[in-house]
Amino acid sequence: MVDLNSYLIIGAVLFSLGLFGVITRRNGVAVLMGVELILNAANVNFVAFSRFGGMDLSGHVFSLFVIILAAAEAAVALAIILNIFNNMGTINIDEADQLRQ
Amino acid sequence: MVVFSTNLIYSAVALLFTLLGVAGLYVFLWADFIAVTQILIYVGGILVIIIFGIMLTHRITSVRLSHSSMQQGTGGAIVLVIFVGLTSMIFRAPWYRVAAVEPEETVRQIGRLLMIDYLLPFEVASVLLLAALMGAALLSRKVD
Predict the structure, then answer these.
(1) Rounded Cα–Cα distance for residues A97 and A8 (Å)
(2) CATH topology of domain A4-88
(3) Cβ contacts (< 8 Å) between A47 and chain B: which residues?
(4) Per-block average pLDDT, block size 10, for chain B (144 residues)?
(5) How far is Cα B71 from Cα B10, in angstroms, rounded to an integer?
(6) B19: which of A66, B2, B13, B64 lies 20 to 30 Å off by Cα?
(7) If we measure between CA atoms, which residue out of A63, A93, A89, A99 comes closest to residue A77?
(8) A76: nearest CA in chain B?
(9) pTM, two decimal places
């Protein structure tokens, strides 16, 4: 029986793996991938609640907004990472520790 | 795979398959419009941006495209605690359940919701996208 709990578990797994990526990866792009996983976990929960929890189609609209925010965030974050790489020659987030060049 | 592989390109490809799997879950949840949007924007847009970022931030001449992790033990412990907490919360919480009926056409209703109930967030999101695009173009421009 596939019900709400299984989808919530999938969301929790995605969230945990994304958080693991965010706090353990050294590469900036890989940290970005972890953030994408976390946003996907939120989306799965939204759509699952709209299917099982009486949230109707508002959940779909919310997950649309989350996707829009993820797109904007990815574009800006990649631009920032490119700048860090140009200025410091590395994108390892524990080595890029100075604000001035 | 996304968070464990040491090759960055492998991580990106694993992320691709993860996103496709989540799109399949949306189809199972009667959210066809969200599934198509997920494939278009995530797989077609964000993943391409991420791969561009990988390509641009590693010198083409350098063969080494790997990256390492740090503090895997501590991070794994913290994440495990969080996951166990979430799971027990999920199984114990009295969720409000409604036997939903399958919507016939989600696209029309989503459009109606966007244009009537959620008009202000929709416009704000469009302004935010414009600002993000301008900011990204400004940040990645060569300063001379």
Answers:
(1) 37
(2) Helix Hairpins (1.10.287)
(3) 25-26, 29, 31, 34
(4) 70 87 87 86 85 74 56 82 88 75 76 85 90 85 66
(5) 21
(6) B64
(7) A93
(8) B136
(9) 0.84
